[in-house]
Amino acid sequence: MSSSSVRKKLPPGAIILNAGSTVKTETGSWRSLKPVIDEKKCTGCELCWLYCPDAAISNSKSKPPKIDYKYCKGCGICANECPVKAIIMVAEGEK
Ligand code: SF4
Ligand code: SF4
């Protein structure tokens, strides 16, 4: 699907008309950089979960938290906010 055909489907202002419908928008396809958590450095503070604008990080008290790459758009906010720098951003496809 081309980006122009996607644009035509958006309502004015790209407002969300139906509550809960954002779950259908898999923002992970936007990503060029991907966050990776270093398990050894992570303290489990959950600040990454708190700051993630896409709710792509779990808050299930797992250490390290789990990232749902279907919705992570690669903005890097979690990496920026992690107080112990346990999250690095790597190029998509990099190991
Ligand atoms: S912000 Fe950093 S240290 Fe805190 S839970 Fe997330 S990855 Fe772990
Ligand atoms: S890169 Fe952005 S969208 Fe992805 S988990 Fe981190 S804060 Fe959330």
Write a brief structural summary.
The protein is of the alpha+beta class and 95 residues long. Helix content is 18%, strand content 11%.
Keywords summarizing the entry:
single chain; 95 residues; alpha+beta; two-stranded antiparallel sheet; 3 helices; 2 strands; globular; binds iron/sulfur cluster
The share of residues in extended strands comes to 5-15%
Determine the fraction of residues in helical runs and give it as a percent range.
10-25%
The kinds of small molecule bound in this structure are: iron/sulfur cluster
**Coarse morphology:** globular
Structural class by sheet pairing and helices: alpha+beta
Instruction: State the order of secondary-structure elements, H for helix, E for strand.
Output: HEHHE
Q: Major β-sheet, in short?
A: 2 strands, antiparallel
Uncertain segments are: none
Count helical runs: 3
Which quaternary structure do these chains form? single chain
How many beta-strand segments?
2
State the end-to-end CA separation. Answer: 28 Å
**CA-atom Rg in angstroms:** 15 Å
Mean pLDDT, to the nearest integer, reads: 87
Strand order of the largest sheet: 1-2
How does this model look, in words?
This protein is an alpha+beta fold and 95 residues long. Helix content is 18%, strand content 11%. The chain is built from three helices and two strands. The protein has helices at residues 3-9, 47-51, 77-81; strands spanning 33-37, 87-91. Strands 1-2 form a two-stranded antiparallel ribbon. The longest helix is centred in the N-terminal third of the chain and has 7 residues, at 3-9. The protein is globular, with a radius of gyration of 15 Å. 17% of the residues are buried. The mean pLDDT is 87. One iron/sulfur cluster binds at residues 37, 42-48, 64-65, 82, 84, 86-87. Residues 35, 52, 54, 56-57, 67, 72-78 line the site of one iron/sulfur cluster (SF4).
